[in-house]
Amino acid sequence: MSRAIDVFAILLLLAAAAAFGFGIYALGNRQDFKALYLLLVGALALRASTELLRPRGSGS
Known about the structure:
The protein is mainly α. Helix content is 82%, strand content 0%.
């Protein structure tokens, strides 16, 4: 199960990088709303990826 979560986290990281790249491209083409949406999606995907990869402490 842990390996599946790691693979999913890496896929989220790649999705975040792609969203950031397309967001920067859209910003260069003056598509402000599309750029804002893609940058927000990238930020949320990056946060989700780091939350999945963060080591968990022993629960109390």
